[in-house]
């Protein structure tokens, strides 16, 4: 599903055709100020995180702590102009039972 030429991390000036915004800072071209680089990610607790906290078999692992923010919503901002460029919302509480999908890498497709 992910093409072999996908760019992770700093694009270093490579023109980007499309960015997939996930959990990690994403390589992107800002549509507002034209700069390229990595987005700044801010998190917010999601329903999935709250559900995970209440699951008895996850006792002791609280997904509402910032260090366990893999189930949180992620909002991507431009580091240059502070505009929000994308959101990645974990709106599906079923995600809780699918650990491989807890943290997905952001990537971009070069033009
Ligand atoms: Zn910008």
Description:
With 111 residues, this protein is mainly beta. The chain has a domain of 66 residues. It is 7% helix and 27% strand. The strands form three sheets. A three-stranded antiparallel β-sheet has the order 4-5-6, with no helix packed on it. A two-stranded antiparallel sheet has the order 1-7. A two-stranded antiparallel sheet has the order 2-3. The structure holds zinc ion. The site of zinc ion has 8 residues, from loops. Keywords: Membrane, Metal-binding, Transmembrane, Transmembrane helix, Zinc. It is found in: Membrane. It holds the Pfam family zf-LITAF-like. It is a peripheral membrane protein.
In summary, what is this structure?
By secondary structure, the protein is mainly beta.
List its traits.
two-stranded antiparallel ribbon; transmembrane; mainly beta; binds zinc ion; 7 strands; 111 residues; 1 helix
SSE layout and pairing:
Elements: E1 16-20, E2 27-29, E3 36-38, E4 40-44, H1 47-54, E5 73-77, E6 84-88, E7 107-110
Antiparallel strand pairs: 1-7, 2-3, 4-5, 5-6
The structure holds zinc ion.
């Amino acid at each position: 599903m992910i093409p072999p030429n996908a760019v992770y991390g700093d694009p270093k000036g490579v023109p980007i055709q499309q960015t997939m915004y996930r959990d990690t800072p994403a390589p992107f071209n800002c549509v507002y100020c034209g700069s390229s680089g990595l987005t700044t990610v801010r998190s917010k607790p999601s329903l999935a995180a709250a559900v995970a906290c209440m699951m008895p078999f996850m006792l002791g692992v609280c997904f509402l702590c910032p260090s366990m923010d893999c189930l949180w919503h992620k909002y991507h901002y431009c580091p240059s102009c502070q505009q929000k460029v994308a959101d990645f919302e974990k709106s599906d509480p079923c995600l809780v039972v699918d650990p491989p999908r807890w943290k997905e890498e952001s990537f971009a497709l070069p033009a």
